[in-house]
């Protein structure tokens, strides 16, 4: 067996190598035991801390926290052991493999816990595994040199597999970090009791923009792009992008202004053109309005800045509803008006501290026109159901008390046309019988 290894230029492990490997295996087993204990003891506490600081909605890191704690504890213990002494090659391979495996599982669990795609988790876990294993057994230089040799040179820039891998890993890692920071900062702002819903949403958007800008510059620095060399190109490119994304940036600024002056807030009931509903979200580009039919209208932020908008809940959520009702001319008007007030007061959504009223508005062609005026405090539920409840009750009360509802009527007056003066109308002559 040793001759076969020597034929391929590989030295057969000595007795010291086997001893080092055995010691490394024992230490890896001990690390696994300590990691299991740490996951059992610290995992639930870290899960509770994560739910408190970042919330449990959306991400799945909380229920993964025990496993993540095990992977982290095992990787840290093995890393300390690996760097505490100069290990023989076989022992270093055992420890490096354990360290790389735990680190890869830790990265994969974190990325999958952030609801990112599987290929992203596999990519980052693979890079972490091979990088740590190569570093443990002899360094990354042989691998990086091999990847750098596969490529081409464009001017003074070297483009190779190593460069592409660095860019891809940097972008994916920054995306994961940005998503994690947005989650933590957004939940922290949401828990701030001194801010209302609009101020919290504005703070979350400004924090997201700041995190994205910081991630952009960090990524540029990590990749090693020299912005001074691209000054002319970036200026022209920025001008073109500015013209192309003019509406997008306009909607972004309009959304920030809407949140700052608090003219429109999530939960408000607004009317914009033909769209009526309650605001569920103020996004970067548009405001989402959900109608009573369940349809979601996306209205650009700029339209809310330039068009006339009815906000039913801007300063108060109390809204008055007008319900027209007509009765016949020959009915008892005081009784009919009393029954209208009674029907309005029995509706479930009508406010009790602002009692309903009935106004006589006009004498129509076929009816005496009235309006029932009621106040509601939940305009996001619509006004159609209130009208329907009140009119149904009005119909029942009118029938019980003999109040007639009007219907179109027309009276026809037929005049007699007299004959010519001095001419009397005579009976027609009787028919004469024939004689034989």
Task: Please give a quick description of this structure.
Helices cover 56% and strands 13% of the residues. It is an alpha+beta fold and 436 residues long. β3 (269-272) and β4 form a beta hairpin.
Strand order of the largest sheet: 6-5-4-3-7
Please report the number of helical segments. Answer: 13
Which range does the strand content fall in?
5-15%
Give the number of DSSP strands: 10
Quickly count the domains: 3
Describe the largest sheet.
5 strands, antiparallel
The SSE order reads HHHHHHEEHHHHEEEEHEEHEEH
pLDDT < 50 stretches: 1-10, 431-436
Span from first to last CA? Answer: 159 Å
Coarse structural class: alpha+beta
Mean pLDDT across residues: 76
Residue share in helix? 55-70%
- Rg calc: 41 Å
Q: What is the approximate shape?
A: elongated
What does this structure look like?
- This protein starts with a helix and ends in a 35-residue tail after the last helix.
- It folds into three domains: 13-196, no CATH class; 226-315, Roll (SH3 type barrels); 319-401, Alpha-Beta Plaits, CATH 3.30.70.
- The chain is elongated.
- Strand 1 and strand 2 (157-160) form a beta hairpin.
- The strands form three sheets. The chain has a five-stranded antiparallel β-sheet. Strands 8-10-9 form a three-stranded antiparallel β-sheet, with helices on one face. Strands 1-2 form a two-stranded antiparallel sheet.
- The model is unreliable at 1-10 and 431-436 (pLDDT under 50).
- The protein has 436 residues and is α+β, with helices and mostly antiparallel strands.
- The protein is 56% helix and 13% strand.
């Amino acid at each position: 067996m040793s001759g076969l290894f020597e034929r391929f230029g590989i030295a057969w492990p000595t007795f010291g190598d086997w001893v080092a490997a055995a010691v490394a295996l024992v230490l890896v087993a001990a690390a696994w035991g300590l990691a299991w204990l740490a996951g059992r003891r610290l995992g639930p506490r870290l899960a509770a801390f994560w739910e408190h600081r970042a919330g449990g909605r959306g991400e799945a890191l909380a229920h993964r926290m025990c496993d993540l704690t095990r992977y982290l504890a095992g990787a840290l213990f093995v890393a300390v052991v690996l760097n505490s002494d100069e290990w023989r090659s076989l022992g270093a391979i055992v420890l490096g493999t354990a360290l790389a495996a735990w680190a890869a599982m830790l990265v994969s669990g974190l990325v999958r816990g952030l609801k990112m795609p599987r290929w992203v988790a596999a990519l980052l876990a693979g890079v972490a595994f091979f990088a740590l294993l190569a570093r443990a057994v002899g360094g990354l230089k042989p691998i990086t040199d091999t990847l750098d040799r596969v490529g081409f040179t464009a001017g003074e820039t070297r483009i190779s597999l190593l460069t592409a891998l660095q860019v891809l890993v940097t972008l994916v890692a920054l995306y994961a970090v940005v998503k994690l920071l947005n989650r933590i900062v957004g939940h922290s702002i949401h828990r701030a009791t001194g801010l209302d819903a609009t101020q919290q949403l504005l703070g979350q958007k400004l924090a997201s923009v700041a995190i994205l800008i910081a991630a952009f510059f960090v990524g540029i620095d990590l990749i090693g792009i020299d912005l001074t060399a691209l000054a002319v190109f970036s200026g022209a490119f920025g001008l073109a992008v500015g013209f192309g994304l003019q509406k997008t940036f306009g909607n972004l600024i309009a959304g920030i202004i809407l949140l700052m002056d608090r003219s429109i807030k999530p939960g408000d009931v607004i009317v914009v053109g033909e769209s009526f509903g309650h605001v569920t979200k103020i996004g970067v580009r548009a405001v989402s309005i959900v109608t009573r039919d369940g349809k979601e209208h996306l209205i650009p932020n700029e339209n809310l800045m330039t068009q006339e908008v009815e906000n039913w809940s801007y300063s108060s959520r109390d809204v008055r509803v007008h319900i027209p009702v007509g009765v016949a001319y020959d009915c008892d008007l005081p009784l009919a008006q009393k029954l209208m007030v009674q029907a309005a007061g029995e509706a479930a959504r009508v406010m009790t501290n602002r009692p309903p009223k009935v106004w006589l508005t006009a004498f129509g062609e076929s009816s005496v026109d009235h309006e029932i005026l009621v106040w509601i405090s939940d305009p996001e539920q619509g006004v159609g159901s209130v009208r329907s409840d009140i009119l149904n009750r009005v119909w029942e009360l009118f029938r019980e008390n003999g109040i007639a509802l009007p219907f179109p009527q027309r009276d026809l007056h037929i005049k007699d046309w007299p004959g010519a003066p001095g001419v009397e109308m005579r009976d027609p002559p009787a028919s004469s019988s024939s004689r034989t």
